[in-house]
Amino acid sequence: MKNQLAGHSDRAAADPLSAPLAPVPGSGHIFDVDRRLSTVDMDENRKMRIDGIARHLQDAGVDHLMHIGSLESHPHWIVRRTVIDVLRPIAWPTRLRVRRWCSGVSPRWCTMRVRIDSEAGGLVDTEGFWIHVNKATMSPSRLTDEFFELMATTTDDHRLRWRQWLDAPAPAAEGTRYTFRRADTDHFRHITNTAYWHAVHEFAADTPGLTRGPHRYILEYNKPIRFGEPLDIHAVDAPGALTLWFTVDQETRAIAQLRPLEDD
Fold first, then answer.
1. pTM score of the predicted model
2. Quick one: 148 and 230 in the same domain?
3. Residue 48 is inside which H or E element, if any?
């Protein structure tokens, strides 16, 4: 496993926007469950929507913590980046196999891979950069030794560092006003992670060429958005990528990008 993961790290360092995600490890701790694809998560073509995928990632994270008995010791997490590779679209109706494991860890954060296979042949690969936080101070909080050691069984990267992938400034042109609902607020009083993907889905619908084959979504959360803040979304549909900036009073709070992937 070490040589395989080292090769992945080299590729990711060279070009993280298009590098393949870490493979399923041959050993170590992997959370593995079956789920049903709900009708609420499918689009007008009966394909699993991007926000539906995000909901499964969120639920898998909580269920994983419950499974290993770490929900009380590690209850609060903030996602800094989510990568979603739609390699083969998942179509309804189907059952899903959801596997979750760690692909990089440090004392206060980790990257968690989730692979979603459908019994009909669909495949979605994802990775999230998760920060363990103290809710009172909203600052990074140390993982317990037991949690760290369990996560480390599936990765050789035990000194994970944050590196931003999307850092281009928002366009100067006026954006499109977008309104989140009060129902989109989480227990941190921030707009929930999944709600951002509603907006990504809306704008991506106008770029069908980017999703005709395997494709990748990247979403980086720079600063929380609260309900009622005046949100504008700036979209740039350049050759080979759609980029979205979520801005409040001209401050970039999040950046998303959709790009095609090479079909291996």
1. 0.94
2. no
3. none
Q: pLDDT averaged over consecutive 10-residue blocks of the chain (264 residues)?
A: 47 77 96 96 95 96 98 96 98 97 98 97 98 94 98 97 97 95 92 96 95 97 96 96 97 98 74
| Residue 40 is assigned to a structural domain of this protein | yes
Domain assignment of residue 201, yes or no? yes
Rounded Cα distance between 125 and 142, Å, is 27
Structure tokens at 67: 């499974």
**Domain CATH for 36:** 3.10.129.10
Considering the domain architecture, whether residues 31 and 114 belong to the same structural domain is answered as yes
Question: How far, CA to CA in Å, does 144 sit from each of 40, 151, 224, 248, 262?
Answer: 36, 11, 26, 36, 39
- Whole-angstrom Cα distance, residue 29 to residue 27? 7
Domain coverage including residue 230: 176-260
- Run of H or E including 120: none
Classify residue 116 by burial, with Cβ atoms within 10 Å: 0-12, 13-18, 19+: buried
